[in-house]
Design a protein that fits this description.
Largest sheet: none
Mean pLDDT: 84
Helix content: 40-55%
Order of helices and strands: HHHHH
Strand content: under 5%
Length: about 190
Amino acid sequence: MTQPAVDGPAQHAPESAQPQRPAQPQTPSEHHRGRGRAAWVKAAVIAAAGIPVGLLWWLLAPSGLNLLTGNPDLATGTNTATWLPRDLVLAGLCLLAGCIAGSFVSGSKHQQPTTGTVLLVVLAGAAGALIAWGTGVLSAQWWGAPADTSASASVAFSLRSYAVLALWPAAIALAIFLNSLFPGSGGKPRD
């Protein structure tokens, strides 16, 4: 069989003056360094998230700015009924931040985070919780009304239950664990 004739000259794409080099694959050490650098950046973002979480804690919590309830009876720390809700507001914020951070670093169906990355981001979550606590207390000292703490140190904007600080790193670890058990399909059917 013969091919049909083509009318006119054949058209070719213009060739570039530079010869095209094939893309060089990354060596395993370059790939590991890139992943390590990304893990440190994620950890820094998680720890730095403690600043807005601490500000939100002071803005929302009773005996802080009290925007969550707006109840004037809960505006000061002299009312002992504010102590538990104040801690619970920080607990909820830490839990939310931990879930978001855990899903942020949990990886994909085909690429789970390394053990080192998990440890790094869990430690970053602990640092974020400490930063949030410090930021909330500092915000109360700067912008809040002075409090007479002679009766109890809890009258000042503070945290009574330090176990709340463990919620952020625990939520990160739990989110990563659950993602490794039930990886998302990314909108594609599972194999």
